[in-house]
Design goal:
single chain, 63 residues, mainly beta, two-stranded antiparallel sheet, 4 strands, 0% helix, 35% strand
Length: 63
């Protein structure tokens, strides 16, 4: 079997995830691709994943 070698110089970021914390119940999770500066995202703390089921907004700013 042939082998190739890769290093960090051969890698690139293909997806960013943002850590979310529900302002109602404190549940935390990661959401992919919510990283557009100056954007307000509408999120839901999913009841099916032990969340409270409430909707909230998250404003993203990379500062």
């Amino acid at each position: 079997m042939k082998r190739i070698n890769r290093t960090y110089a051969d890698t690139e970021v293909t997806e960013l995830s943002t850590q979310i914390k529900c302002p109602y119940c404190g549940r935390e999770w990661m959401e992919p691709d919510l990283d557009e500066c100056g954007t307000v995202y509408n999120l839901n703390c999913d009841e099916d994943d032990d969340g409270c089921g409430k909707d909230f907004e998250m404003y993203f700013d990379a500062s």
